[in-house]
Amino acid sequence: MSEKTHRFEEIDTPRLVRDIKELSAEARTLKDRLRQRWVEPMGEVQSALCRLKWRITQLCILRAWQRGRYHLQKPLKRGAYPGMLWDREAFHARIAEESARAYLQPGDAHGHPLPTNDNATVAQTELTHEH
Asked: Does some domain include residue 3?
């Protein structure tokens, strides 16, 4: 795989995995609702399910990319056409890059964790009292 812009060790993996599980449970709930007899217009529920499935796919791509793997082996049906050329690595890299932004753990330029508010206050107090 190509060089990645984000350092994936900075990704909050437990939160990513938790979000995938929570969104998957939400998708199952929507699917169950759509499988029942429709007594109301369900277009909005169908749209919500489609958006949710895409978000889950994005997060699964990020999780697979973290481990040096691909989530998808062929292009999604949406937007695909016969004879279409698909660059699997570029697609996964782009989606992983976009998705990673929400899961980056805060850190300084060297990758060290940023101080919490309490530590920052203590450090500021120490600087103030030195002079």
From this structure: no
pTM score:
0.73
* Residue 33: inside a domain: yes
Q: Is 68 left (phi over 0), alpha (psi -120 to 50) or beta?
A: left
76 in any annotated domain: yes
Q: What is the DSSP letter of 113?
A: B
Domain membership of residue 55 as a residue range: 8-130
- HSE of 122 in the Cβ direction (CA atoms, 13 Å)? 5
Q: What is the pLDDT of residues 57-108, one digit of tens each?
A: 999 999 999 999 999 999 888 878 888 899 999 999 999 999 999 998 876 4
Looking up tokens 């609702």 gives 33
Q: How far apart are CA 71 and CA 84, in angstroms?
A: 19
